[in-house]
Amino acid sequence: MVMSLAIGSTFLLSVLAGVLTDRLGIRITTFAGGALATSGMFISSFFYNQVEVLMVTYGLMFGIGSSLAYTPSLVVLGHYFQRRMGLINGFVTAGSSIFTIAMPFILPHLLDHGLQITFQVLTGFCAFLMVAALVFKPLMPHLPPPKRELEEARSGCAGRCRGFWRGIINFEIWRNKRYVIWALAIPSALFGYFVPYVHLVKYVRDVLGKDANSQMLVVCIGATSGLGRIIFGLIADRPWVNRILLQQVSFFCIGGLTMLLTAANHMVFFIIISLGMGFFDGCFISLLGPIAFDLVGHSGASQAIGCLLAMCSIPLTCGPAIAGALYDNMHSYLVPFLCAGLPPIIGAFVLFSIRLVKTPPKGVPGSPVREVGGEKQNNATATSTDDKHGPEETQSEV
User: Fold this and answer.
1) Per-residue pLDDT tens digits for 281-329
2) What crossing angle do the helices spanning 267-286 and 288-296 adopt, rounded to 10°?
3) What topology is assigned to 2-137+176-359 in CATH?
4) ∠ CA(27), CA(150), CA(168), 5° rounding?
5) φ/ψ of residue 228, rounded to 5
6) Taking the domains of the chain in order of start, what are their residue ranges?
């Protein structure tokens, strides 16, 4: 329950993280998130045997802090890396895969010293978020309020109220039909996405026996997920590659492999399927940020990513719970895994509808979010940024 609350709050409050990123800035939001997550983890070390307290310290404080740190970490990449955004996102998100591989080996040794020591060591990991936040220097200037907002602010109480909310929430991204389709299709596809990750270990033990080394499959998923994030990030940077199409392929393969789990009856088959699921999971994860920038531009990316992650919190939390309820009633994972494979496949086909929506010219409702000073100024800004930060970016990209 505590872990579910932490994961749910991390995703659900990403919309708040997006708003704060626009209002307070990337560095302040990330630092505040790191401080909150570190505090929650440290306090948890003193109340590790009290679930009620852990619901607040770990479930909420750590979860909210992680949310405030995660969303800006994706947004800041678009400020520095435009030509290699896919590859850089792959490298950055591959960090979680490294710890997915390492933690099953590290945690048993930490737990031998007790939960309190384990929480305190994890506190040290969280504290690094505050150090990382200090180097998050945004390069894109804040947008001035559009004329409509200024006029509404002078038109009485109702106008001031509308102007207030328009100043906080970026409504322009929801006029972008391509983003709306993408933002609705992704959460719909994720209803079955998390099911194998939560239930795979138990399922393998049900099929092969309690002595099966099912934890190895988690390592397999983490290893190929990190590899997939880098490989697909590199592919996504090719000018002729459709990033959304890559994400569709990943969803279709994840759904198909989830269904194939029901036919596996040997550890070799489970390993092959796990390697494939991790590889295409890496594709999906590494392209979230780049696609958001493609659809709404730099000025709308923070809230576009935040809103998407917030909507993803519902299927990611409910999907495994529904699969668990089905297993409790049927005492079999056949139906849960077959049902879990359907949403990603359906979501992959729904994303084809984006091709039916033409990108309107800039400045009309439904177009990509406005950029500062028009296209010429953006190009000049990008050119000056490349000149100023070219050596660093070149080294990073290499």
Assistant:
1) 999 888 888 898 888 887 788 888 888 988 988 888 888 888 888 998 9
2) 30
3) Growth Hormone; Chain: A; (1.20.1250)
4) 35
5) -65, -35
6) 2-137+176-359, 145-172
